[in-house]
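Reading a protein record of the kind used here takes only a little practice. The record below shows the convention in full:
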Amino acid sequence: MFQVPAAKVTPPAVPPEHIRRPALEAALDRGADRALTLVCAPPGSGKTSLLAAWVAATGGPPTAWVRLEPEDTDPRRLWVGVLAAVTTLPGVPPSSRLHRLVVSRATVELDFLGELLDGLAALPEGVRLVLDDVQHLDRPASRHGLEMLVRSPPPGLRLVLSGRRDPALPLPRLRLEERLHEVRTEQLLFTRPEAAALLDRAGLRLTRPQVDALHERTGGWVAGLRLATMSLRGHPDPDRFLAEFSGDERPVADYLVDEVLTGLAAGQRETLRRVSVARTVPAGLAVELAGREDAVDVLDDLVRSTGLVTGTGAPGAEYRVAELLRSHLVADLGRHGPELVARTHRRAACWWSAQGRPVEALAHAREVGDAAFLADLLEQWAPRLVGVGELDALDRAAAALDADAGAEPWAASTVAHVQARQGRPPEVRAALRRARRAGRPPAGSDAAAFRTATERLVGLRRARGASPEEVAEATDPALAALVHVGRGTARLVGEEGRGAVP
């Protein structure tokens, strides 16, 4: 029969750089009375190190550990490994029927599984059975015995499964019956103090802002933090490294391709690639960007099975792709051609604009590389953004315009608002001069009302009654509010003509 290497059935040593996580170890302890404990997270989340440290801690029952491999999808190999791990425990007496059990060379019979359950139930003390990398059990025959263990667990057996995606077991039913204990991706992400401890253990002495930047960039993903430490050692300029660190860095990209993306179906990879241009992906935007009606189903499956995508808000409402993976996918999308990237950002900008979300719309519009398109969105949303104080978004949008588009009345008036907020009178006057040189907007148009309101708000036009330029003020509530505030400001400031624009 199959030979079982000792390393396969021996709990791994805790790595010297491992950061103990008492809260997570305590969370594992709390699952002692459940039929199944499931630790599920993407590659590089620290699952094996966490379980190894937990097993090594004193006070737990004897632990049989099996490191699963792709060939263990053969149920004969699986149960030979389980028997080897269990029968080496000191708590299994020589008289136990487990020592006499033999896995058939042909197939795993129900009689064998029944005897295994009986043998585990007859042990004088409880045992823990940890199956690591359970994602390799991808055949129904290899999972049948696990279902029996979960359905009718022997007294004293603590079953712990760890893997990159959910095993094909009746998890919803176990969850409903409160027989499932779970540790998921969001719990395994390193906190900022844990990230600082990991960097310190690696011999890196980073400042608090540098640690914060790395933690934000990696999202607390353990593999990302470790890969960053490898590149940071001896780097002459940590700040520059942190500013440029992304999922397209060679070590990170290689890991993501080999360990994360290779295991996904082609449709899943393409959906992730298309939605990656957005940091937050509402369900409707996912459908728009992916170009497939089942995009939400694809993302939901990735949320449940991999942890590569997390859901935010109500179920199915919004999604986020892990940041390092997202930045890798954006770069990969770019390798398919800049036109594809531009089209994808344009679709995102139009979708956000249609939802009344101008900050997000302008952020995507800046990436399109089409100044006229960006100027059109700026014209549509500038009054509202000025009214609610979102001047940073306007500043970034205006800075992305070329000289011709930046001289348009809407753009120049918008820049004036931004410069006024920053206390730069000369720049305000320069922006409004550019607006004047661009020509006078039609009387009664929104552009004329916006420019008049801008000049009044910055003290460059005296307060008169409603001018013909402001007839259209009611066409947009935000613009109407700016017009009224501009009149009031001009009346308060008084001193007609002070600072008038030449």
In short: Residues 468-474, 495-502 have pLDDT under 50 and may be disordered. The two ends are 95 Å apart (CA to CA).
